[in-house]
Amino acid sequence: MTESALQRLFIALPAAGIENCIRPVHEYLAAFPQALKSVSPDNYHITLKFFGETAPDTLDLLMHDFEKLAVDASPLPFTLRGLGAFPNIRRANVLWCNLDIDLDVLRKIQEIIESMSEKHGFEREKRAIKPHLTLARLRRGVIMPMKIAEYIAANGDTRYGESRFDRIVLYRSILRRDGPVYTALAEKPL
Question: From CA 140, how far away is CA 186, in angstroms rounded?
Answer without folding.
Answer: 33
